[in-house]
Amino acid sequence: MLSSSSTRVLGPPAKCPHSLLPATCKLPLRRLQPPAAVGFSSKAAAQKRKRQQQRQRKRQGKADDDEDDAELTELSKAQHVITVPDFSPVSQQLRDVFDERFQDPRHTTQERFLWDYWYVKDQYTLHRTQASAYFPEQLHSQLVDALLEYGEKQLGCRAISPVWMSYYIDGCGQDLHCDSFHGPFAYVLSLTPWEGRVFTGGETQILQPQLLGSFWQSFSPGKGLELTDLVTLVEPRFNQLTVFDPRFPHGVRPVAGTRDPQKGRLVLHGWFTEPSPFFDGPLPEEEALQHLNAALFPMFDQLQALPQVTGTISMQLRVSGETGTVTDVTFLADTLVALPAAAADLGLGSGLLDSGTIRGAVQHVIRDSLMAAEFPESEEGDTVITLPLVFE
Ligand SMILES: O=C(O)CCC(=O)C(=O)O
Ligand SMILES: [Fe+2]
Questions:
Q1: What is this structure's pTM?
Q2: Residue bearing the CA closest to ligand 1, atom 7
Q3: In this predicted model, what pLDDT tens digit does every residue of 351-362 receive, in sequence order?
Q4: Does 2.60.120.620 match the CATH number of domain 5-26+79-275?
Q5: Tens digits of per-residue pLDDT, 310-348?
Q6: Which of 232, 252, 268, 272 to mutate to test the pocket of ligand 1 (most atoms within 8 A of CB)?
Q7: Higher pLDDT, 29 or 11
Q8: Is 51 exposed, middle or buried (0-12, 13-18, 19+ CB in 10 A)?
Q9: 174 CB within 6 A, ligand 1
Q10: Domain boundaries defined on the chain
Q11: Which of 43, 48, 139, 47 lies closest to 91 in space, CA to CA?
């Protein structure tokens, strides 16, 4: 269920280099944020936890099918870039408005003066505007609703920052930067007819994960590396939504080959913000939240005992209306990065230290804790909860 889009678009934080609009109405913040996990898991602590979980599962009549090794296997893979082709039919309508306004360069209308040439030496060169100022209100609301629906259901983010629209012609681009202070996920929705383009460049480029943690472990002096070994290039295909982890250094490859705005790179971009649980179904939100919290507090204690991870992981829980139990937990978005070095400093054995094992241990604690949550029954059917957890 989506409420009016205007209440879910949040103004940029003070330190935002894109700052422009005053902050609009905020939803009450109910972010469930575990304290940064510190310490390490001793074998005894892990065994105790396992015994507790076994008892819990027995009490619930669930089969005890977890093997020791399985408990450390990753339940989802980290995804620092997600692409969603054919995102929404609204993209074509937005593109049509842009084309109509640029159609006749000799015809002067008010809307032609809505653009800001944003130039920060050696960093940002592009033409930008706010989608809310540029598009008719109803069309803008449709765009915001489509983004919010994706954010709520797939990421557990309940708001977005004001949507930017930018076009890139000859000489435009963005140099490497990180902008995670806006929110845990950045997005780019392309309005560029990519196939027939006349320019070069224009891909979103994102540094690859192996450069940021374990570069020297995988480095081989006898093997050369080139651009595509170092960065992930994401082509902004028309109507593709690209969602990425803005903690990764990223930018836009310089565009060259056209000075015509209609033939350049055109994108809508911004951030998904306000990670907090989203409830879809008959359970009243406040009540469901209380029951969720009851399962989360012991989980945070268990997570404290594991090596540190940072990032966001979002889960979908299905709560049975008939029994009030959780029948399914699936992982949706996952940008968790393990910090094995922190665990090594704490003297953990090397076998436990690879990032997959740490991520796996964290995911198992999360899944098992959520499967053990109990909610009120509801005759009106199941409730689906999207739950994001932010590790800082
Ligand atoms: O347009 C893109 O591909 C990336 C945009 C971006 O990183 C930003 O606006 O901060
Ligand atoms: Fe960015």
A1: 0.83
A2: 251
A3: 446 788 889 999
A4: yes
A5: 999 999 999 999 999 999 999 999 999 987 665 555 555
A6: 252
A7: 11
A8: exposed
A9: yes
A10: 5-26+79-275, 43-72+277-391
A11: 139
